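Box 3.1. Reading complex inputs
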Amino acid sequence: ATHLVWFRNDLRITDNTALTAACQHPSDRVIALYIATPQQWHQHDMAAVQAGFIYANLCTLQQSLASIGIPLLVLEVNDFGGIASAITQVCQQHQVDALFYNRQYPLNERRRDQAVEQTLSPEVDCHGFDDALLFPPMSILTGKGEMYQIYTPFRHALIHHLQTKLQPVLPAPKQRGGEVNTTDIPPFNYPLDSHDAFPAGEQPALQRLRRFCRENVMDYERYRDIPAQDMTSRLSPYLAIGVLSVRQCYHRLLAESADFLLQPQSGAFAWFNELAWREFYHHLLVAWPKLSMNKPFIGWTERIHWNPSHDDFQRWCDGETGYPIVDAAMRQMNHTGWMHNRLRMIVASFLVKDLLIDWRRGEHYFMSRLIDGDLAANNGGWQWAASTGTDAAPYFRIFNPTTQGKRFDPQGHFIRQWLPELGDVPDKWIHTPHQWSEKQGKPIDYPTPIVDHATARIATLVAFEQARKPQ
Ligand code: FAD
């Protein structure tokens, strides 16, 4: 029989559930397929740096598939609407008997897969697998059989599942068939950027995972909030497009720190906690389809009167707000496609609670810049910061960007990396450079603060309260 494996957000050959299933019998012919959808990517604001990362990883995937005797076909169609007929053609051309794929959970992706299955059946058997998470969405439920709305009880239930029924890591399939000749994959019809900080391929991803779990994870709890320290794993770009699986992360963590689940104060547990947030946000996305449709979790927040200003938004995007920690963070993302988690929380809070700008504008801007853009994590992070999500920061909790800066970048090491114009400002004043400049009578080439935080905070509280209790 001929088996077709359709790769999407699972660009790896190790621990790939669909690929392993397709390769179960050595006598079956296995071919692989990837379909780029530039128009769809535009609609979803995919960053050029993420598209470039997908392209680079597809090239390494082609090589690793070839090394086990599987050819990779790469097609391009405009959007999801064109996929069912493209796959039908591939199936006819190659006399495919069965299609194998790993599920994606956002609504459009699920609808796309349903359409493909309907078009192909009954001629082609379709097999979808849950692979992207530790457990399938809607399999970790409350006593009432519902998805959890609060994170901590969800994590308790997740740990219980992990202790009783975790899947092992699957090895890459064995070599099959003869040699496969490869030709270069033509670049997608989409802007493609690359960044040296994230080399493509499963091997670099695995090396980074191993090194992190061996050398850094024990200090993770202590330093993970300090952006100047390179102490988080930086695995998010690989996890977002499936060059690495979350099971590989979990098993590697277990191999290095066998009993971390019993040590909630440990660095290993703190890192696991982040993997569990990832899991939580993906499970939420399936339980509440409105999250894939630009809707807040908490309905009354739809009534907030947002600030429509284009200029304020643009200054935030460009890192020109006059708040050094915010601006340094935005410039880090604009230049590298990645931003530290603490900074994502600070800049998101600043956009929503200091500028009173609709969180969805920030969410889209993040997607258009991030190499690790992921609907579930990005939407979850934004709704958390904007206080529109489930188990989010309460709306009256508003970060003070200056205090956050002093706390997490006390000497301004991180700020100085991205704002060279503040080079002369002493550490003590790095978070309030204009106060220093006035005192010294020395001008600095840096914008004055876009808002006064204390005033903005009160306006935001009023706006949220009016929306919550309309007259
Ligand atoms: P580590 O600290 O090493 O964590 C390990 C892994 O756990 C990460 O690679 C990631 O896959 C996952 N993870 C960590 N924190 C979170 C979290 N809070 N929510 C969900 N998963 C998490 N993460 C994305 O992968 N894509 C996004 O588009 C994204 N957008 C965000 C937007 C906002 C406003 C906020 C506050 C957070 C967002 N995050 C997003 C979560 C988090 O900031 C990044 O996953 C993390 O900074 C990636 O760096 P790391 O790999 O070094 O993380």
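In summary: The pocket of flavin-adenine dinucleotide is lined by residues 224, 232-236, 239-240, 274-275, 277-278, 281, 341, 344-345, 348, 366, 370, 372-374, 377-378, 380-382, 385 (CB under 6 Å).
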